[in-house]
Automatic annotation (TrEMBL):
One of its GO terms (cellular component) is endosome. This is Methyltransferase. The chain crosses the membrane at residues 25-44. The lineage of its organism: Eukaryota, Viridiplantae, Streptophyta, Embryophyta, Tracheophyta. It comes from the Eukaryota. One of its GO terms (molecular function) is methyltransferase activity. It is an enzyme of class 2 (transferase). It is a single-pass type II membrane protein. It comes from Macleaya cordata. It is found in: Endoplasmic reticulum membrane; Membrane. Keywords: Glycoprotein, Membrane, Methyltransferase, Signal-anchor, Transferase, Transmembrane, Transmembrane helix. Its main location: endoplasmic reticulum.
Length: 637
């Protein structure tokens, strides 16, 4: 402190200046003094002291005040950014904040690439108009999609499996249309999902038990499944208790909001349809495929839809069919169809399955199951007799983004022994998660070695632990349920969460240098291909947490940063979280743009070193909804 015996710092400076101003030593002493002061200030700055939390907290008007400190800082961490550009957010001429206003309430459930009005411009043949048809650049919305008035955070899992708030998905028509099938019921301020379905009125659990009597669902050999025409995804919801992870999909059609209900329940689902394009998954991805009265014409179009199921089904995998035409002799009157029509439909399906070299595994009561061969040795011999469909020539079986379906059979990888499994045998779950995926051990993924895979697994354990220092609620059961990894690579981020009651949709961007989605599925995880210059095939407010690792570096000069961020805002729930990893200059631009979204955020250092240009940006989307009068008008319409 300054006093009679302790002159202020400015007086000391003047004293030294007067003493040395006529000597050549003045400059040297001044520099020495300044360096010493800088050194001691640096020591003080790095001492062990508690650091304050991020610059803003969640809106106190949130209906969930328990998450007001989602991003918290660790003890002993210098939370101040070490890159001076942090201060340039408000001073740099090329980094400015633009406010993005809310969209009209009519866009509350807007799905840009499955827009009903735009779809009418496309052919109704084979339901092509229900495929992805995205807006042109000039049609992109530059506003934020509002949540409906009264929106609440979904119930925590596993309660969410059985309940969803009416305010979040204000659609009652399914409760009427499917009243006799136990799909969904409206009770006061919420929906209840009894677990029923068209072909399982006694509940999905009992239906799955019936399947389990025919094939083994408990030994870990079946881990990944796909449900075509999923309804509200009760089949996938109840498989989770058996450690089977299901991708459920259905089109955005007359059963509006069925996929949205699935996501509100905390069940993996996407908007999708079997029409003319391949499904956005790699070959040999799923252990089991399922259709329960999904209304897909399996026997038509030269069997093209079953050929596509064959492509994504793993060697030895199962295809399960219930509903028309299975057990038609018992149900034909209730289905209001003739015996001849149903018999013809089943005969066509049987013929297509046989042409794919599938074996009819079992048919019992209302369930029929076929099994794909474990290799194609016999199938290639049979091609001399059954010529159709022929084997595909010179095509990439994993290419599946706006790729047209084939009328040829995707060949399995070659093997030398009739008892071998084409592509390699997978370990049962849970060992499958950390076992070396066959695509890597066979060196079919260029540039990825077994050592790199093991190191990546350990790296993401370390990174998750680091993330939890800043977002402590990552480790709290129930806070997050639906997660999205926007650039998943080998699925290490998802694998690190294996012991938590949540699921991760792993996206491999179509622009990624290496297609690793097949590896992700071989680990027993799920995912999809996507191009982030377009909107994702999902509803607004799908995900609780988004993880964007180097996404914006990957898409630099491909599309506008603000358009990707607006899409992230669309699919993120109110009070949802985002973790960005990228170059610090990229993060500064992201931070500036998202301030115009009413996000709170903070840049922190890389887990290895403050000198690493890659840093992290933790962000939280504020709670806000459409005004009450707009919400009432929307419900009235």
């Amino acid at each position: 402190m300054a006093g009679p015996n302790n002159p202020p710092f400015s007086a000391i400076t003047k004293h030294f200046y007067a003493y040395f101003k006529k000597t050549n030593l003045f400059s040297m002493v001044l520099i020495t003094l300044l360096c010493s002061l800088s050194y001691f200030f640096g020591i003080y700055q790095h001492t062990d002291r508690r650091v304050t939390t991020i610059n803003s907290e969640i809106n106190c008007s949130s209906p969930h005040p328990n998450i007001t400190q989602v991003l918290k800082s660790p003890i002993g961490l210098d939370f101040h950014p070490h890159h001076p550009a942090e201060d340039e957010i408000t001073t740099s001429p090329d980094v400015s904040t633009t406010y993005f206003p809310p969209c009209d309430i009519k866009y509350s459930e807007y799905t840009p690439c499955e827009d009903a009005e735009r779809s009418l411009k496309f052919s109704r043949k084979r339901l092509i108009y229900r495929e992805r048809h995205c807006p042109e650049k000039g049609e992109l919305l530059k506003c934020r999609i509002p949540a409906p008035f009264g929106y609440k955070n979904p119930f925590q899992w596993p309660t969410s499996r059985d309940f969803a708030w009416y305010a979040n998905v204000p659609h009652k028509h399914l409760t009427v249309e499917k009243a006799g099938q136990n799909w969904i019921r409206f009770e006061g301020d919420r929906f209840r999902f009894p677990g029923g379905g068209t072909m399982f009125p006694n509940g999905a659990d009992a239906y799955i038990d019936d399947i389990g009597k025919l094939i083994n669902l408990r030994d870990g050999s079946i881990r990944t499944a796909i449900d075509t025409g999923c309804g509200v995804a009760s089949w996938g919801a109840y498989l989770l208790s058996r450690n089977i992870l299901t991708v459920s999909f259905a089109p955005k059609d007359t059963h509006e909001a069925q996929v949205q209900f699935a996501l509100e329940r905390g069940v993996p689902a996407l908007i999708g349809i079997l029409a003319s394009n391949r499904l956005p998954y790699p070959s040999r991805a799923f252990d089991m495929a399922h259709c329960s009265r999904c209304l897909i014409p399996w026997g038509q179009y030269d069997g093209q839809y079953l050929i596509e199921v064959d492509r994504i089904l793993r060697p030895g995998g199962y295809w399960i069919l219930s509903g028309p035409p299975i057990n038609w002799k018992r149900h034909y009157k209730g289905w209001d169809r003739t015996q001849e029509d149903l018999n013809s439909e089943q005969s066509k399906i049987e013929a297509v399955a046989k042409s794919l070299c599938w074996k009819k595994f079992v048919e019992k009561n209302d369930i029929a199951i076929w099994q794909k061969p474990t290799n194609h040795i016999h199938c290639k011999i049979n091609r001399k007799i059954i010529r159709n469909p022929p084997f595909c020539q010179a095509q990439d079986p994993d290419k599946a983004w706006y790729t047209k379906m084939d009328t040829c059979l995707t060949p399995l990888p070659d093997i030398s022994n009739i008892k071998d499994i084409a592509g390699g045998k997978l370990a049962n779950w849970p060992e499958r998660l950390t076992a070396i995926p066959p695509r890597i051990s066979s060196e079919s993924i260029e540039g990825i070695t077994e050592k790199m895979f093991k190191e990546d697994t350990e790296l993401w354990k370390k990174r998750l632990a680091y993330y939890m220092k800043f977002n402590g609620e990552l480790g709290q059961t129930g806070r997050y349920r639906n997660l999205l990894d926007m650039n998943a690579h080998l699925g290490g981020f998802a694998a690190a969460f294996v012991d938590y009651p949540l699921w991760v949709m792993n996206v491999v961007p179509t622009e990624a240098k290496i297609n690793t989605l097949g590896v992700i599925y071989e680990r027993g995880l799920i995912g999809t291909y996507h191009n982030w210059c377009e909107a994702m095939s999902t509803y607004p407010r799908t995900y609780d947490l988004l993880h964007a690792d180097s996404v914006f570096t990957l898409y630099k000069d491909r599309c506008e940063m603000e358009d990707i961020l607006l899409e992230m805002d669309r699919i993120l729930r109110p009070e949802g979280s985002v973790i960005f990893r990228d170059d610090v200059d990229v993060l500064l631009k992201i931070k500036s743009i998202t301030e115009g979204f009413q996000w709170n955020s903070q840049i922190v250092d890389h887990e290895d070193s403050p000198h690493n240009r890659e840093k992290l940006l933790f962000a939280v989307k504020m709670y806000w909804t459409a005004p009450a009068d707009q919400g009432e008008a929307s419900l009235a319409s």
